[in-house]
Amino acid sequence: MEFITNCPAQTEALGAALGRIVPAGTVLAFHGDLGAGKTAFTRGLARGLGISDPVTSPTYTIVNEYRSGRLPLFHFDMYRLTSADDLFDIGWEDYLEREGVCAVEWSEHVSQAMEGAVRVTMEKTGEQSRRITLEGGDFLAALSL
What we know:
Elements: E1 2-5, H1 8-21, E2 27-31, H2 38-48, E3 63-66, E4 73-77, H3 84-89, H4 92-97, E5 101-105, E6 118-124, E7 130-135
Parallel strand pairs: 2-5, 2-6, 4-5
Antiparallel strand pairs: 1-7, 3-4, 6-7
Helix pairs in contact: 1-2
């Protein structure tokens, strides 16, 4: 599925729509350059999950946890990791077992661990516009804005 957003608010709205339907245990593997809107999308995802906490990039912490919604959200930033082994060292499997939603920025750094993930590709098409492509996951058919 492909969507065009024209501002950060629309990117967040798409994330929120996904958050309302995403099932427990889903891994979202984000692909996109710096500034493509991955964190904005994740803010919306959190809102759609019913999370009211402020969502920030986990660049320096590797993972931020949000547990106040209908499902927990685990927001990862893999930019500083060099392999899937690094991911397993921080307890990746434990996060998967917690039946939440894992949103993984820079997932290409740990591609070996992303099997079965929903791929979220974000491309800049203008200063604020983005092309967002969602691939994988049967539940995506229910996505509507």
